[in-house]
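Build the 3D complex.
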Amino acid sequence: MVDPPLLDVRDLRAGYGAFAVLHGVSLSVLPGEVVAVLGSNGVGKTTLNRTLSGLLRPRGGSIGFAGEEIAGADHAAIVRAGLVHVPEGRRVFPNLTVRDNLLLGSYARGRAERAQSLDRVFDIFPRLAERLRQRAGTMSGGEQQMLAIGRGLMARPRLLILDEPSLGLSPLLVEEMFALIGRLRGEGLSLLLVEQNVMQSLAVASRAYVIEHGRVALSGTADALSRDARLRAAYLGL
Amino acid sequence: MALLMPALVGGLLTGGVYALVALGLTLIYGVLHIVNFAHGSLLMMAMFGAWLLAAKFGLDPLVALPLLAAIMFAVGWALYRFVIGRVAHGDDRAILLATLGVAVVLDNLALVLFTGDTRTIETPYALQMIQAGPLLIPLAKLIAFACALLLAGALWAFLALTDTGRAIRAVAREPEGAALVGIRPDRIFALAYGIGIACLGAAACLLLPSFYVSPQVGGVFVLVAFTVVVLGGMGSFPGAVVGGLLVGITENLGGLYLGEDLGPICVPLLFIAVLLVRPTGLFGSVR
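Done.
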């Protein structure tokens, strides 16, 4: 018997003003699965994330999460349900300390289990534990990215959306980031990984969707896609 | 020296209440990034509220303080929710006009309801003095100073140590990031505006025993409050407190050494001097 999907997106449409960005996207994430969403700039990846996390109201289609319909639900309710979005550009609170940033990560859940969540984040990111009183705005880009993910983990997500986590990081830190994603996968966390970094994403993901012009252009298992001639031609220039 | 110390202490005591008025203004600026032109008129309204409670219901301003702060919180919250937030749409000019419009309406409403007369209340402690060494300290001002600093401390603890306080600080700089952790920025804006106006309710009760009330009284304090906020650094909490105390002292020393006519130039001079050296104010930072 196959598990029902944790995230089940069907024919999702969204846009801004007169601009339609998503023209019916369907995708799913099974429990414990890492799914990559690939595509170059401007194809609608960020719009997809903003719609999934409730920052943008969808114009059509459905978003099933853990068996509930969440399309059009309030962003706070979506976080409480366990769908947590770590945005592109980190969006940490620059004027707050690392500790306050992390504590706010569990804002939607309240104080229950906060100490355990903190311990878990410190276990994954020992560097954050050393910098509790530092203001987030004074940290380097890589540290801010870790803080953003740590803040997301504080919400005890059932599904974590990582939006371009490797963007703007040095090659060494990109390696570290993908190692971290592998570790989170190993702990059984479901991940939707939205990336431009095609090969490395396919290496950690079990399945992937390639988005072009607001539609799913290609999808399949990571193995099959990494051998797909069209993908290699479009993104790797091979 | 015999004159200096009383003037210094008197200025410090008045400065405490200035700080409270300025804290409300700087909180609203720091979180919502709007200049609240209705601040003075709302303070005037709160002072009339305190006066009404005292003159008609015999409620001492200090007893009325929690009540009036709560009422003013509700007024501020509703004002943001139904007027300022509605017209805002992220446009600063719209907010400027909205807060200015609220000020005009309140000022003229007060003229209709209360006429232009100035009013005062009698409290048993208004004229009492406390002997502290060679100093005679007016009890009403001492109480006002202590309460103002206590409230400022409580507000600081609220912002620093509670989830809601952290959320207010988070929304101030990163509303989208805040939304992603489940904070509703619109609610936080209304809350912050309400708290800023609640400061005025408290300040009104502290001012009333030693100041008169009239429909024009807001202008007096709002000019001071704006000076304090810019001098201390816009949006800065310690800036509002230190700035308030500094302006209170400067005002009193100016009056002492330069007299009634020339004294009032001292605060603007201090203002210019500080901004020449630190354009972002004492505690301000470049964003």
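The first helix of chain B runs from residue 4 to 32.
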